[in-house]
Amino acid sequence: MIHRLVALSLASLAIFAALSSQAQGLRPAAGSAAIPAPARMPSSAPLQADYIVAVVNSEPITNNEVRMAVQRISQQFAQQRRPLPDSQQLTRQVLERLINDKAQLQLARETGIRIDDAAVDLAEQSVARQNQMDVAQLHKTIVADGLQVSQFRAQLRDQLTLTRLRERDVEARVRVSDLEVDQYLSEQQQKSGDPAAQEIHLAHILIVVPDAATPEQVAVLQTKAQKLLERVRAGEDFATLARELSEASDRANGGQLGLRSTNRYPPLFLSATQNLNVGGVSELVRSGAGFHILKVLERKQAGMPAMTVTQSRARHILLRLSPQLTEVAARDKLGDLKKRIVAGQADFAAMAREISQDASAEQGGDLGWATPGMFVPEFEESMNRLAPGQISDPLVSRFGVHLIQLVERRNVAMSPREQQETVRAMLREKKFEDAFILWAQDVRGRAYVEIREPPAP
Description:
This protein is α+β, with helices and mostly antiparallel strands.
């Protein structure tokens, strides 16, 4: 199970637990997960005369600590194009978070939680991979942005410490019984007949019909749309066709319209898809905008997790790095191999049997059907961007350098047992949030906190 992100660090680094676990093959060890890429560090600003704004037990929090944290969070908001909270409110929230983190770090040290250098090294490597660079390049970027490498590694260590503490003390409190799962499923079943409680996720391909189009022009455009529909039904990837040929503004994301309640879709779309199963494709639909081809990506009960899962079948070629094979050399070798395969001069499966250094080599690199979360994140993210038949560029993971080919993709209904476990995980997530808040308040309440002077911007 991939652990949840329990807290956003003030250094804009979200660290997951169990990074020191050793993964087997491409599948992460139980409890392991990736580190999201950090926001770019802000350049150093001239520091004012520093002073202590708060003391947590015997440890101080300085004004410059608060200022730098506020700068980093402000930059993150700007990168995400989110409105920035009121500066005074943000400063108070940052100080409160620093106090809570300080109290929790002290508790972690007192109760024996230690993060060794190997875990920090692995976290650092994961951050570098997420930013598509190696560790040496990451260090250069950190220094150029005004942060010392030792400070960066200390922040990583603190976040790993906090995550381990929270998992140990909070996760253990969260339990979801079979009765709670059954009750929730029963309540949702009672709502299943209510159309307002249904959610649907559609994708579409649009061929625009201009307002002033003549009947002859409409006929030509309808023929164009019909040929596209035939290609979809012949097995071509819907998302790829949408990206390449749709004339809708959402074509870049494969024409996905999003998971919405049924009352947020045009009645025309609902009518065309009401009898379709997940994965089904509609006949041509004529709207005021033009001709649409609709595909049902997901159906679910509002308040329920999805009861279908998208599985991918891929194959790969892995070259493991060594003193004799550098990352650059491995990338170049697999890049050349990709060109040969795409040109029809080599066969992917045959080359996997010949040169891949993974256990899947005997099967031509075939990894079988995989559900989300089975592969390490860097591999899965690259695989998910592929359409069936496509080959990735060389990808660096914690295991080496890969070349990935997506063979096919399918939607599979969950078994009753899988549905129960999905609901259990959803209920556990809700309980975790409440338990975490109460636990953090308790840790804060047992700490001696003295507010000295308000932070200055």
